[in-house]
Amino acid sequence: MKTIKTAFVAVIMILIATTVNAQTAKPTEVKIKTSAVCGMCKKTIEKALSKEAGIQKSTLDVTTKVVTVVYDPKVTSPEKIRTAISKAGYDADAIKADPKAYKNLDECCKKEDAKG
Ligand SMILES: [Cu+2]
Could you tell me if residue 40 is left (phi over 0), alpha (psi between -120 and 50 degrees) or otherwise beta? Predict the structure, then answer.
């Protein structure tokens, strides 16, 4: 009987620990390399990310082409964020830009290496 009680207490402790952990899930930051080339790209990407669930903040540095995204790890993930960037028409790390979205980009926003 004592063993059962101990086991029960242990389970409760684990449950409490898990709950506390979930409540204090801190916003996580991820840096993603994009194919942005100008200020318009910055606006396009930041706007696209602002519509994504779980993304609290995104700041793109046009010089480095790196977008810094603050997100809720319980709601979204770096994979989902990269997909959202791809769907906006830009490369995101190893994920290539969605061809359809890329085609709709303004001429000045297309990758420099793609210019004729
Ligand atoms: Cu641009």
Answer: alpha
Task: Return residues with CB closer than 5 A to ligand 1 (ion).
Answer: 37-38, 40-41, 109
Beta-carbon count within 10 A of 103 CB: 10
The CA 94 to ligand 1 mean position distance, Å, reads 20
pTM of the model: 0.77
pLDDT in tens, 42-59: 999 999 999 999 999 999
Predicted confidence (pLDDT) per residue in 89-116, tens digit: 999 999 999 999 999 999 999 976 554 4
Q: How far is the CA of 70 from the centre of ligand 1 (A)?
A: 22
| Fold classification of 26-111 (topology level) | Alpha-Beta Plaits (3.30.70)
